[in-house]
Amino acid sequence: MAQTTLYNKWRPRTFADANDLPLVGQEAIGRTLRQAIVRNQIAHAYLFCGPRGTGKTSAARIFARAVNCQRGLQGEPCNQCGNCTALLDGRQLDLLIEIDAASNRGVDDARLLRERLLQRPGGDGLTGRYKVYIIDEVHMLTKEAFNTLLKSLEEPPPHVIFILATTDPQEVLPTILSRCQRFDFRSVALEKLVGHLEHVAMVEGFAVEPRALEALARAARGGLRDAISLLDQAMAFGGEPGLDGERRISTSQVDAMLGISRLDAVTQVARALGDQDLASALRASHRALNGGADVRAFNRQVVDFLRGVMLTLGGAPETLEVDVETRDAIGQVSRTFTLGRVIRAVKGLSGLDASLRTRTVDATLVFEVALAEAIDTPAGAPASSPPAQPPNQRVAQRADAASPDIRPERSSEARTSVSPAPAGVAGVNETAQVVVDRREPAAGPPPNLAPGATVDADTAIVTHDAVQTDQRGSQGAVPEDAVQSLQQVEVAPVARSASPGLWPTAPQSASNVAAPVRRARPTGKTIGLSDVVSQWASVIAQIRDDGMVPLMGVLQGTSPIAVEPENLVIVSCGSAFAMQKLSDTTNTLGIERALSRVMGVPMRIRVVVGDGTNDGAEARRGPSGPDPFASRAVRMLGGRALNNDEVTDLDRRPTLPFDSWT
To answer: What are the Cα distances from residue 603, in Å, to 337, 404, 463?
Structure first.
């Protein structure tokens, strides 16, 4: 007789009969199916889903024998009648048809199956009530094959029962799911796994130490088939007979077979993580790995230990399924952790399993880097992640940290409100938000106010967030690294039409419109033009270091030409295109931030074309005369170009009714 593997030998044969290999760990599912058979409430299609090795195919086979048992619908198969024994031996291929969807996944296979459904059960002198089709790994079927089976699943012949088994139910079409009764098989609890392994080992004539059984059960990760397979492997690895003739399996043998480390090695690594001692963590891990431990297994041990620390710090130590020694070690190590740091360590190490499985990288190196990342904490960083904040608050915090000389001082009583930016304000995007600070003025002047300077308490000070907008004009998310700085600006009044029937005054050219006045806080230090010119190359280098590399090419053709009061630097560029790019809010704030860092005091800039005396239209025309595209349009339409006065007069004319346009 051929040798049978241990997990096939112990495959469940009944739903709940303790005398004949019952289904382990799925009592609720077994009870439901058994009661449905007894009451003759049998559905035409079932979906068994869950992790591997939890009893899906075994339950389907038990169900097929129970509905075809010659002793009647008793809920359990007798496993003694002709139909049951034939199905157990695999001799009856008409009552139970198992299909591997991984290798029969096409539409032609589905058509062939549909044609076979009309054949009634029975053959070889045996007659059954139902033909049970078990389609294993059903999620591997193609979409076309699923669609071919839809009608058959919805209205099969009365003698047909479908049982679909899968480990990935989310890949099954919703139209298939809605036609099936779904049963979710869950991972077997650790206590049940240990108890079942102990029973199997005792029947097989082996004595296994309790900690060895627990190690086997933990390595199985809730899968009963994997647990029995590991026990079979341990029986072959150890099992030397003792003085009494009984074959024994020790914990050290199981640890060596699984490549796992002793508790003290795991405890040393966890304690080093809690103490933030990278050297000790690396030394402890190297001792364990050099002693023969597997990297993946050791990483899982550390993650399980840290999970215990997290549960202990979270106030739920009673949920730990560990022995007394491990529980005591977890309790001691938890004193060196904060909840935030242990969560960060668990997140970093638990995601390594897929990386450690590949051979393209050094698994030990990946594990060491994860240890370093779990320990490396920036100075002053909070132990746990702060709650999510709105984008404008994150922008303000970044700007305050990056430029302490420019940031506005805020008191605990300060209140802010967010409103859309006023339409028509030059230099302000219409979709940007304006945060208005309505705090009461503090008593006395600011600490860095220059002698003789005053503060106008009636002026509304607004802070503009550097808000990026998409092409549709909607406000998008603000990436932190794109925000360069914040400045306090005073918004100029918006020019509006005197009559509601007239259009607003036409906007002036870009070079003539005064940009919003950015007021640097007085520092008492004055910067001259020679100082700025001598440091201009350093300013461009600072912009490169700040990550605004595309802006460097535009700044290469610029130069400071004047420094006005309050450290306002006039920057000259060679074209209207360059002025448009540099006048962008984000770019302007980035240049001012870099200039302020280099000069050591808050600085502001204003960009002009040439020496700033042209009217913008001349700058756009350039040395070659009028715009060639405009000239071509004039010739094609038989018109003429208007001057500035004519354009202004046209804008002031009343709006014509819609009917007069036709």
So the answer is: 45, 13, 16
Chain-centroid distance, C-alpha 385: 15
CA 260 to CA 269: how far, in whole Å? 14
| Contact present, 261 and 287 (Cβ < 8 Å) | no
Task: Give the tens place of pLDDT for each residue, 361-409.
Answer: 678 888 889 999 888 754 344 444 444 444 444 444 444 444 444 444 4
Give dist(CA 327, CA 309) in Å, integer. 9
Q: Pick from 662, 545, 656: which is nearest to 598 by CA? A: 545
Q: How far is CA 303 from the centre of its chain?
A: 20
Which pLDDT value is given to residue 527?
82
By residue count, the chain amounts to 662
Per residue in 580-635, pLDDT (tens digit) is 888 888 888 889 888 888 888 888 898 888 776 554 444 444 444 556 667 777 77
Quick one: residue 280, left, alpha or beta (phi over 0 = left, psi -120 to 50 = alpha)?
A: alpha
From the number of C-beta atoms within 10 Å of its C-beta (0-12, 13-18, 19+), residue 162 rates as buried
What the block records as the tokens of 179 is 């036609």
Sheet holding 45-49, edge to edge: 96-100, 131-136, 160-166, 45-49, 181-184
Beta strands in 221-353 (DSSP E): 240-241, 247-249
Separation of alpha carbons 593 and 138, rounded Å: 60
- Please provide the average confidence, as pLDDT, over all residues in the chain: 75
- Residue 586 burial class via C-beta count within 10 angstroms: exposed 0-12, middle 13-18, buried 19 and up: middle
Contact yes or no for 574/557 (Cβ under 8 A): yes
pLDDT of residue 245: 67
pLDDT tens digits for range 14-51: 998 888 889 999 999 999 999 999 999 999 999 999 99
| Residue 397 tokens, joined | 């915090």
pTM of the predicted model, to two decimals?
A: 0.53
| Rg (the chain; Cα; Å) | 39
Q: Does domain 263-375 have CATH number 1.20.272.10?
A: yes
Q: Where are the beta strands (DSSP E) in 168-260?
A: 181-184, 206-208, 240-241, 247-249
CATH says 190-257 is which class? mainly alpha
Helix (H, G, I), strand (E, B) or coil at 557: coil
Which position has the token pair 């997140």?
347
Instruction: Give CATH superfamily name and number for 517-621.
Output: DnaA, N-terminal domain (3.30.300.180)
Enumerate residues 6+ apart whose C-beta is below 8 A from 190.
Answer: 214, 217, 218, 222, 321
**Cα of 651 vs its chain's centroid, Å:** 53
| Domain residue extents for the chain | 6-184, 190-257, 263-375, 517-621
Question: What pLDDT, on a 0 to 100 scale, did the predictor assign at position 660?
Answer: 44
Residues of the chain with pLDDT under 50: 1, 378-522, 615-624, 656, 658-662
* Alpha helices for 488-621 (secondary structure H): 529-534, 536-545, 549-555, 576-582, 585-599, 617-621
Return the CATH number of the domain spanning residue range 6-184.
Answer: 3.40.50.300
Q: How far apart are CA 41 and CA 64, in angstroms?
A: 14
Q: For 158-196, how does the pLDDT look when each residue is reduced to its tens digit (9 = 90+)?
A: 899 999 999 999 989 898 999 999 999 999 998 899 999
